[in-house]
Design goal:
With about 550 residues, the protein is α/β, with parallel strands linked by helices. It contains 19 helices and 14 strands.
Length: about 550
């Protein structure tokens, strides 16, 4: 045991040293490229494009930082002015720098600012904003309970609501505790958000941009900036990682909601169907990544013990849950207050239907290293004593059982808002969805719009001899996934590659002309400057 611990410590420090070395070398490379961009950019003309990303990457180059940087470089190289809004310890607390175990701990601003200065080396138009407390806002926040902080507004800006997703994300819980640590963080987030609002408003006055580009749009620095910009009629584009490796998604809407316009008359041809089928074949075997994470290294089928247990029931119904951040975003909870309320309502049905085996499947990302949820489905299962029921099985997040095989043996599937619902629909399964998901913008699943209608539809499915599934569901699901993969996921793989941690990236060696000739860059430029749709040309 002692030798194993020593071996693990050596591996940890080896990786840490390697990561530090790679980071420094990458920052040198980035700084040199930044200087090259400045030297080779023609005199700018016209209104600038504003870029702001304070919630992605502290001392490493995150994928979204890479997308942000390369896009801004390409614009500058074409004579389009760019203005960067950059954090110089501009928040007393931010989600990315918060230590959830020790909220009072100082922020890692020094390393974060050092990273940003490497990214913006010699760039014109960088506005470094610092933090200034507003005594009036601070006084207004004193002694407020959690509920009041959630609804706190100042000068027409819903600061509490804008800070809430980031607070839930960093604490990894949806139902926040009304304790002093939580209230302290919330107050500091609100004060910091107000500082961002004031400074960004002034920045927009001074730059008069044509469009603002921000990361994600859900965390409070960028969410507040987006709110301020939209309030004054300025167009805002958000971006996130795409569905393909080393790819980005840009949109005029909320990037995390993934709004995609698919023409009504779009039908997939033979080549496109074959391409999608090849992707699905790999995914159904567990061969896929998201934001650099490979969840299924060793997917396995249903074992004999499970099949034996299932044989004693009339039918199987899997229940697929999701992670806190995806279920805590404002646009997700349109029917239930949150995922756990849905689970509580479902538990009543589980107890009322002993003839049905319900399989509760926790999302594999729930226990991801450094991002593990603190309010988990496993915790809910334990607190509600779900596994005491003979007709309920819990599959934990680290169990690599194939969800696809489970779906194939089930009468129908239940989801909150995870992608498995889209895939189940493509497989031809009936899917009862309870939360607004990326794919529910098109008819792809059954999605009753009230709690009562959800319960009614669930009871109907459980008692039906056969569930009639509209043919449009599978068609729309395939079309939507195809667009996500091959039209909306903009590849940056020619310029970025995974770093020591696959969730981080590093710059490849390339020529500036290659960047300018990139289809991805041209699509983004057209989207930003000419009202394009941020979609690749149809293959």
């Amino acid at each position: 045991m002692k030798k194993i611990m020593i071996g693990n410590l050596k591996e940890f420090f080896t990786q840490r040293v390697k990561r530090g070395l790679v980071r420094r070398l990458n920052n040198i490379k980035v700084a040199r490229m930044a200087q090259l961009v400045t030297r080779n950019s023609p005199p700018p003309a016209g209104q600038p494009v504003v870029f702001f990303k304070a919630s992605t990457g502290i001392d490493d180059l995150s994928w979204n930082s890479g997308f942000h940087l390369l896009t801004s470089w390409a614009l500058r190289l074409q004579g389009i002015p760019v203005a960067y809004f950059a954090c110089n310890a501009g928040m007393s607390k931010c989600a990315l720098g918060t230590n959830r175990d020790h909220p009072q701990k100082a922020m890692p601003c020094q390393s974060c600012v050092m990273q940003s200065r490497a990214l913006y080396k010699d760039a014109p138009g960088v506005e470094w904003f610092e933090f200034e407390r507003d005594a009036k806002v601070e006084k207004a926040l004193e002694n407020l309970p959690l509920s009041n902080l959630m609804n706190f507004e100042w000068q027409g800006i819903p600061l509490g609501a804008l800070c809430l997703p980031g607070l839930r994300w960093i604490l990894r819980i949806h139902h926040l505790n009304d304790d002093e640590n939580t209230r302290y963080l919330f107050r500091e987030y609100i004060l910091s958000a107000w500082n961002v609002a004031r400074k960004f408003e002034k920045f927009l006055d001074e730059t008069n941009p044509r469009v603002a580009v921000v990361f994600n749009g859900q965390f409070f620095p960028e969410a507040v900036a987006r709110h301020v910009a939209l309030r004054r009629g300025l167009r805002v584009v958000t971006h996130e990682v795409g569905l393909q490796p080393a790819s980005a998604y840009f949109t005029d809407g909320e990037a995390t909601a993934y709004p995609i316009h698919i023409p009504d008359d779009f039908e997939m041809n033979e080549e496109q169907n074959a391409r999608l089928d090849a992707y699905l074949a790999r995914r159904f075997q567990g061969d896929f990544t998201m934001a650099g994470i490979k969840f299924w290294a060793d997917m396995k089928g249903l074992d004999e013990a499970f099949l034996k247990k299932a044989s004693g029931f009339k039918q199987i119904v899997p229940i697929f849950t999701n992670v806190i951040f995806d279920t805590s975003q404002p646009h997700a909870n349109t029917v239930f207050e949150d995922m756990f309320e849905w689970l509580d309502a479902t538990l009543e049905v589980i107890r009322a239907h002993p003839e049905t085996l319900f399989v509760i499947r926790a999302h594999p990302d729930e226990l991801r290293v450094r991002k593990a949820s603190r309010e988990t489905v496993g915790g809910w299962v334990e607190a509600r004593r779900v596994t005491d029921l003979t007709n309920a099985v819990f599959i934990p997040p680290n169990e690599t059982l194939s969800s696809y095989e489970l779906i194939s043996k089930s009468k129908f599937a239940m989801v909150y808002n995870s992608t498995i619902g889209l895939e189940a629909s493509i497989m031809g399964a009936a899917v009862l969805c309870a939360g607004k998901a990326r794919f529910t913008q098109y008819p792809t699943v059954f999605f009753p719009q009230t709690v009562e209608e959800q319960r009614k539809k669930l009871e109907e499915f459980l008692s039906a001899e056969k569930i009639e599934i509209p043919a449009a569901f599978k068609r729309n699901a395939r079309r939507f996934l195809y667009y996500q993969l091959y039209r909306a996921s903009l590849p940056f793989g020619d310029f970025l590659e995974p770093s020591v941690r696959a969730t981080q990236t590093k710059l490849k060696s390339f020529k500036l002309k290659d960047l300018l000739q990139s289809e991805t860059i041209n699509v983004i430029r057209e989207g930003l400057l000419e009202g394009g749709d941020f979609l690749l040309k149809a293959p």
